[in-house]
Amino acid sequence: MTMEFFAYWNGSQIRDLFEAVVAITGSADFTGLLKTIILFGFLCVITVCALRYRGLDAGSFIFAVALFYGVTLVPKTDLAINDERSGSVYVVSNVPLGLAFMASTTSHVGHWLTDIFEDTFAGVEAER
Question: What is the pTM of this model?
Answer without folding.
Answer: 0.85
